[in-house]
Amino acid sequence: MCCAIRVAAVAALVMCAGFAARADEVVIANDKPIYKVGFVALSAAAEQSTGVGLHFDYYQPTDKYVAYIQAALVGNALPPLFTWWNGTNLKDIVASGKVAPLDAEWDAAVKNGNFARSTGNLFAADGHIWGMSLGNGRWVVFYNKKLFAKAGIAAAPTTWQEFLDDAAKLKAAGITPINSTLQSGWRAFTWFEEIMVRTDPDAFAGLFTGKVPYDGPAVQQAFRIWGDLYAKGYMTDPRSNQDAVDFASGKGAMYLMADWVTGALENAGLGGDDIGVFIMPMINTSARDSIIVDASPILVTKATADRPEVKKMIAYLMSEDAANVLRDKQGLFIANLKSAPRSKLVAEVSDLIAKRKVVSVTRWQEATAPELQGDLIAEFGKFMLDPTPATATKVMASMQSVNKTYWDSH
User: How many domains does one find in the chain?
Assistant: First the structure.
């Protein structure tokens, strides 16, 4: 997600934001074409169950989607439903007063056994719950078992040194070890945050309060480690715009991504038995063992929340049937208690978390002030396209300049 959009620059976008939907359909705007298989199935199932059509309106890349939503806020033209993010991003959009609280819906969902209250709390702000669950992603490393076997690797790494050793073996076998791209823009921060959490989770948390600078020692260390992976030839070309397909086709042996991508990998042709999963080992073993998480809500526009067709769709999207459709067609686990995960990989992630007793850490995107996100993500992207020490120095200086300006005024 990018920085908060300047109102004057984007308000005009509302004029050209139209929906290719029937008059009797409820629109869900989103930036998630990666879920298209599941969304198509969900649309058909929703109409069969409720008699109301459901239309998914896709925007890519993510910064354009954010620009559209921000402009729609200004122009009072929000779609009835739209996907968003939790954390700081949720608080900011709640402050607009233009989304509807869903406390009553969550009370009913908890009472009928569809959801735990703790899931609803992921989408809480200012004492209310504002979103329906579209997923709770745990960030792990998927690996291609066949490529590991080809390189003579019998099991997933359990230490950072084993991870580096495995990468070297894969490279020696003619296999690019790590699949990593700039697809949709936002992916540029993923390896940075993972390395920060593996080296200094306290410094990572400090980035979001302004106490830790983006050109300080902790960040410098993260860029050195990240850059070394590139220098050794361990990363794929970042310019690809189909990273899940790339991984499924064997262009990289390991893929850092949230477990919500499981269905996309399977839909791209990589069977569940061909994929393994592990939580990245800690680099600094004296730091607390952690895992990045992100929770995805569907928000409801206040101006349309009382429409009968919207109310029907909200009830359906929180139902077991909707959860089963997203599970069966997309591999998504939205934490509906009556819908067990389809993928054994999702269940395996839960087992790994329980075994390692890792601490959940909010993803960079949800923790960073929206006003900072666009500029900082752009700098991460510059580094991925030219991952040299010189570029790292320039990128860190630029990020800290933006960061300091923001925190000096807050």
Answer: 2
Q: How large is the average pLDDT for residues 26-51?
A: 96
Q: What is the pLDDT of residue 14?
A: 36
Chain length of the chain: 410
CA count, 13 A, side-chain hemisphere, 337: 12
Is residue 349 assigned to a domain?
no
Do 220 and 256 sit in the same domain of this protein? Answer: yes
Residue 333's φ and ψ, nearest 5 degrees, are -115, 105
Q: Give yes or no for residue 221 having a pLDDT over 90.
A: yes
pLDDT over 50 at 317, yes or no: yes
Same domain, 192 and 248: yes
Compute how many other C-beta atoms are within 10 angstroms of the C-beta atom of residue 226.
22
| CATH number of the domain that residue 301 is part of | 3.40.190.10
> Where in the sequence is the domain holding 236, given as residue range(s)?
138-292+360-408
Can you give the pLDDT at residue 263?
Answer: 86
Backbone φ and ψ for 297, nearest 5 degrees, come out as -100, 155
279, 285, 291, 292 alpha-carbon torsion, rounded to 10°: -110
100 and 86 part of one domain: yes
Q: Produce one character per residue of 242-272: b if its CB has 16 or more CB atoms within 10 Å, e if not.
A: ebbbbbbebbbbbbbbbbbbbbbbbbbebee
Instruction: Give the model's pLDDT for residue 3.
Output: 37
